[in-house]
């Protein structure tokens, strides 16, 4: 039941912050500011040095149990390339796993432990393979190589596929992705680059607020 609840919570929250940085401390700070701004789903990428430390620290501070609680957030791991790393991330506290590609053993491991897994897919065959392995949500990656119209095109023959674009989603096109039927969207460097450049992490909160406003407006305008 927890797995399905988490998937539903991710869908309802709609926006996933994909966080990269130079240290676990930096990424924890980014996550705290993004959560403060209203984005409640954090994907800590394993390209971050000592990323597991960041996942553990955030998992101890935040909980997915009660969406109405002040400390509500869902912490996951991204850029997971193999099943061994997926297991380490789950033990560190990650509640969902995201991969840039389709790795069968990673999916099997996540299914074994009832942890949501979102593998990266690029083709119809990728999506079919993911569905056959029991994946509930596929990551469309890199999203900047597609337009939002790809989702209804994919869901014509594959209406059962839940598609999450990641990469290239911005405030300019977020509404188009949501209205095209995206299950959720992954937001990368656009959320953090201005803050890092300026040395002002409060800008992450402001950008997060803007993203959530855009998301809720898009949802409200769905026909």
From TrEMBL:
Pathway: Carbohydrate acid metabolism. The keyword Transferase does not apply. The keyword NAD does not apply. Keywords: Carbohydrate metabolism, Lyase. GO terms for molecular function: lyase activity. Gene3D superfamilies: Aldolase class I (3.20.20.70). InterPro entries: Aldlse_KDPG_KHG, Aldolase_TIM. Belongs to the KHG/KDPG aldolase family. Homotrimer. This is 2-keto-3-deoxy-phosphogluconate aldolase. It comes from Paenibacillus uliginis N3/975.
């Amino acid at each position: 039941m927890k797995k399905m609840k988490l998937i539903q919570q991710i869908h309802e929250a709609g926006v996933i912050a994909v966080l990269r940085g130079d240290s676990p401390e930096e990424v924890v700070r980014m996550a705290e500011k993004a959560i403060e701004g209203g984005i409640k789903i954090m994907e800590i990428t394993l390209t971050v040095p000592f990323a597991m430390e960041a996942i553990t620290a955030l998992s101890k501070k935040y909980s997915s149990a009660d969406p109405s609680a002040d400390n509500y957030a869902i912490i996951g791991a991204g850029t997971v390339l193999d099943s061994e790393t997926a297991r380490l991330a789950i033990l560190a506290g990650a509640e969902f796993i995201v991969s840039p590609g389709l790795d069968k053993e990673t999916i099997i491991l996540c299914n074994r432990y009832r942890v949501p897994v979102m593998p990266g897919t690029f083709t119809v065959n990728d999506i079919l393979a993911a569905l056959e392995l029991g994946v509930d949500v596929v990551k469309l990656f890199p999203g900047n190589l597609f337009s939002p119209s790809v989702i209804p095109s994919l869901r014509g023959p594959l209406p059962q596929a839940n598609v999450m674009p990641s990469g290239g989603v911005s405030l300019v096109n977020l509404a188009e992705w949501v209205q095209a039927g995206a299950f959720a969207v992954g937001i990368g460097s656009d959320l953090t680059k201005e803050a890092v450049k300026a040395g002002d992490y409060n800008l992450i909160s402001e950008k997060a607020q803007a993203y959530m406003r855009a998301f809720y407006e898009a949802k409200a305008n769905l026909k």
